[in-house]
Write a structure and sequence with these properties.
285 residues; five-stranded parallel sheet; 2 domains
C-alpha cells in the first residue's frame, strides 16, 4: 500500500494494538470495582473497553452508589461481561479476587477515598479492597471523582469548599498512594494497566503531587488522533488549564519545549514519564 493512501494513524494504531494482543502472551485478568462517582466514568469505561479489545478479561463489582450513578448495561458492554456483582448478590469476596492480576477501582467517590484512607470497611466493596491491600495485591485507581478540583465537581456546584476541606480530600488520596495504590487520571487508566508488570513495585506511576490542589491555564483541544503530531514549533510553550495533567495532555503538546501548569496541579506519573520521553519540561506557574 502506498504511504499517501494509507489508513488514518488512529486506525492503524488500533489495528496494531489488536494484532499485538493476539500475538502476545496469556490475557490479563482484572477485578474492576465501581463506586458511585459519575465524574470520570466515561473516560474510565473507554479505557476499560480498550483493555478488553486487547484481550483483558474482567470481573466486575458495583457498589450501591455505583448502581445509582452508572448504567450496569454500559459497564457490561465496556468490560465484555455478562454480569456484574453487587451487594445484593452476596458473592464470596475472596473468590472475586482470586486469580486476578490487577484490581482496578475505575470510579472513586470522595466518600470511598476517605473510608479507604481511614481503614473503614463498612460495605462489601470496602471490605474486599481492604483485604486486597493487606494481601499486597496490585491496584490501579482512577481518582477523578475524588479529586477536589475536578472540573466536573465545580459543574455540580461543589467547587467552593474551604481550602482546609480540600486539603483533607487531597490527603486521603496521598494516603492511598502510600498504601501502594497506583493513582491515575481516568483517561490514563488504559496506559496504566497495560504497562503494569505482574511482578514489581506497587504504586509506581502515582501522581507526583497528589497532596496538592490543581492547575490553571489553556487546555489543548486537539483530538486524540493528533496526539503524536507536533502541536507547535519546538520553542513554543503550552499552558494547560487542567486539574489533573495526564499522559494524553502531554502527548497533545508533543513538539513543544515547555508545558506550564498551575503551581497546585496534579501531574500523574505517566504524564511526567511522557514529558521526559519527549524531552519536554513541565513548569509550575
Amino acid at each position: 500500500m502506498m504511504k499517501d493512501q494509507g489508513l488514518p494513524e488512529a486506525i492503524v494504531d488500533e489495528i496494531v494494538r489488536k494484532v499485538m494482543a493476539q500475538l502476545g502472551g496469556p490475557s490479563r485478568t482484572a477485578l474492576v470495582c465501581f463506586s458511585g462517582a459519575g465524574i470520570g466514568s466515561r473516560e474510565a469505561l473507554d479505557s476499560l473497553g480498550r483493555l478488553r479489545d486487547e484481550g483483558w478479561k474482567f470481573r466486575a463489582f458495583m457498589s450501591d452508589g455505583a448502581l445509582q450513578a452508572l448504567n450496569p448495561e454500559d459497564v457490561k458492554k465496556s468490560l465484555g461481561v455478562s454480569r456484574v456483582e453487587t451487594n445484593k448478590d452476596h458473592a464470596p469476596l475472596k473468590e472475586l479476587r482470586q486469580g486476578v492480576d490487577e484490581i482496578i477501582l475505575a470510579t472513586m467517590t470522595v466518600n470511598t477515598a476517605a473510608k479507604l484512607a481511614a481503614g473503614v470497611c463498612d460495605s462489601p466493596m470496602l471490605t474486599m479492597i481492604a483485604q486486597a491491600i493487606m494481601a499486597g495485591e496490585h491496584f490501579t485507581c482512577a481518582i477523578d471523582g475524588a479529586w477536589p478540583e475536578s472540573p466536573g465537581r465545580a459543574a455540580l456546584g461543589m467547587g467552593k469548599a474551604p481550602e482546609a476541606y480540600r486539603q483533607r480530600m487531597r490527603g486521603n488520596l496521598a494516603d492511598l498512594s502510600s498504601y501502594g495504590m497506583k493513582l491515575v487520571a481516568a483517561e490514563d487508566l488504559h496506559d496504566a494497566c497495560a504497562g503494569t508488570p505482574v511482578e514489581g513495585a506497587i504504586g509506581k506511576g502515582a501522581p507526583e503531587a497528589v497532596n496538592r490542589p490543581a492547575p490553571a491555564a489553556e487546555q489543548s483541544g486537539a483530538p486524540a488522533s493528533e496526539a503524536v503530531k507536533p502541536a507547535a514549533p519546538v520553542t513554543a510553550v503550552s499552558v494547560l488549564e487542567k486539574h489533573i495533567i495526564s499522559r494524553v495532555d502531554i502527548c497533545r503538546c508533543r513538539g513543544q519545549k515547555t508545558v506550564k501548569v498551575a503551581a497546585d496541579a496534579i501531574v500523574t506519573g505517566f504524564a511526567a514519564d511522557a514529558a521526559k520521553e519527549f524531552g519536554m519540561t513541565i513548569e509550575r506557574l
